[in-house]
């Protein structure tokens, strides 16, 4: 799909898209569709885009229409302090699906959009927030697409929340269509990889300090990765593209948390900084999570800086 087609489809359905570009690289941001971002290179969309999400409205009755692209969610997903089970069953909170971002900054190669979103965690604690997404697109001297992205969640409530009452961190999830040749990669952390859904050991291959994951056409796979991994990457051999995501160190006072889709009765587990999700329907996510403070005080800003690079890749083999 052409990146202009995503822009036009979202425009026709009242989703208020924005387009920024530099050279052959572009990003479409959609303030009226969860503030999702869609990356483009050479005129073609790199990110997965699902047109029905622009056409339809998500409710508990209809189920979730996943837009694809890159979304900003609050972490954690599950556990007793997460945000996806506040109604008793898994759902994306209406505060996210119905958010209407406003444009704070718009230039040829950059933007900032922001929306107020009230969260309710699985203990029924309300946490009013302001979500802000900023991005700038450029090309380096070799022609690689570079998208510098900053996602923040600002706490705008009036009460101080103490450790044990909340967990909250920004969480960026980027989706890409894959086939059986595609491989997700990460820097070998030197410790066992934690599986959040089905076991992945038989899908992993290690070489030269890196680990590669191939998709499973029948099972959901999600890897929880520590900060030691340094990057997550997707190699799309059918399109000869490599997509890499890296994160800047967290600001002082912020620490990684568990993002897992665990039972809403379960306590949080080990912290996660990067994650790779593989869905049997044919897409993978490269995920980066930010950090959480010990206390959440009015005006606290939980920020995360992510660099996304998209480059041409030679077909050098599938395993790693």
Number of helices: 3
Strand content: 35-45%
User: What's the mean pLDDT score?
Assistant: 95
Q: Specify the biggest β-sheet.
A: 10 strands, antiparallel
The CATH architecture can be given as: Distorted Sandwich
Shape: globular
Question: Which series of helices and strands comes N to C?
Answer: HEEEEHEHEEEEEEEEEEEEEEE
Q: Gap between N and C termini, in Å?
A: 28 Å
The tally of strands reads 20
Kindly state the percentage of residues in helix: under 10%
CATH fold naming: Beta-galactosidase, Chain A, domain 5
CATH class: Mainly Beta
Radius of gyration: 19 Å
Report strand order across the widest sheet.
6-7-8-9-20-17-16-11-14-13
Question: What does the model show?
Answer:
There is one protein chain. This protein has 320 residues and is mainly beta. It has a single domain, classed as Beta-galactosidase, Chain A, domain 5 (Distorted Sandwich). It is 6% helix and 41% strand. It contains three helices and 20 strands. It has a ten-stranded antiparallel beta sheet with strand order 6-7-8-9-20-17-16-11-14-13, with no helix packed on it. Strands 5-10-19-18-15-12 form a six-stranded antiparallel beta sheet, with no helix packed on it. Strand 8 (126-139) and strand 9 form a beta hairpin. The longest helix is centred in the N-terminal third of the chain and has 10 residues, at 3-12. The model has no long low-confidence stretch (mean pLDDT 95).
